[in-house]
Amino acid sequence: MSKKLVEAMADLDEDVLLEEVKALKDQGVPELEIISSLQEGMGIVGKRFEEKEYFLSELIMSAEVFNEATKLLGAMEESGSSKYGVFVLGTIYDDIHDIGKNIVTTVMRSNGFEVIDLGVDVPTAKFIEAIKQHKPKVVGISCLLTTCFDNVKECIQAIEDAGLKNDTKILVGGGPVDDAAGKYMGADIVAKNAQNTVDYCKKFVEV
Ligand code: B12
Questions:
Q1: Domains in the chain, CATH or no CATH each
Q2: Cα–Cα distance measured from residue 140 to residue 138, given in angstroms and rounded to the nearest whole number
């Protein structure tokens, strides 16, 4: 973890942040490690927002700064091969956070999955339609808002009621989703970051 990068992200200091990302990249630091530091910094942004030290404008700016940083990361380029099959992914309805989802999408693609990205604010019916159409082994639902936990629960229940959960594992992820929340929602697994997601999905696909 780069303390300088975590602090630059937390302080929304774009100049220092971009310089540090370049420096770490030049030193050969793995890109997912760089993303971890950025994610840690985003956690601090969130805390400052909760404590009213930051406001919505800073949240918006944090997203812009994060996206600028990831543009410097070459590993985030997509490979195009799909040797592990299809992964359907989307952010649950009423939630528009997509930075984490987009990272998972690119990292999964660069690890050989074909990702059907349904976008943000995705209604249950759209998840069900995509599962019927693409028959994925794994479906991912991103959720950054505790107020949307019940939406994810409803969506997973609907997938089960439609008889589509037998052959499909459901992964959930996003900042506030821990194991207890995942259990409440009826998910098969909670993934804390993009690398975990790749590891779990490869395991499901190989069994
Ligand atoms: C940036 C941000 C925003 C941006 C989002 C921009 C965008 N395009 O995404 C904007 C400004 C739009 C925003 C809006 C809001 N936000 Co906001 N936001 C954040 C912030 C600071 C960072 C989120 C982020 O991008 N993190 C970085 C990424 C890389 O991490 P990540 O999303 O967790 O993803 C990683 C893993 O979780 C995992 N993962 C993620 N998704 C998935 C999915 C699957 C399937 C898997 C397997 C893995 C996985 O892999 C990713 C990569 O490692 C968080 C704070 C936080 N700590 O998360 C608050 C936060 C989520 N927001 C919050 C709030 C309250 C809001 C608003 C309600 C504010 C308002 N008053 O309007 C709105 C809600 C809008 C809506 N309806 O969705 C709260 C939620 C609190 C709660 N209890 O629910 C947080 C926690 C801040 C806080 N501490 O108060 N926000």
A1: 3-76 (1.10.1240.10), 86-206 (3.40.50.280)
A2: 7
Tens of pLDDT, residue by residue over 187-197, are: 999 998 888 88
Maximum CA extent, the chain? 51
Shortest-distance Cα residue to atom 3 of ligand 1: 59
Q: Is the dihedral of CA 184, 185, 189, 195 positive or negative?
A: negative
174 vs 12: CA distance, rounded Å: 21
Tell me how far apart the alpha carbons of residues 79 and 83 are, in angstroms, rounded to a whole number: 11
pLDDT of 31: 87
**CA 55 to ligand 1 centroid distance, Å:** 14
CB of 96 sitting under 6 A from ligand 1: yes
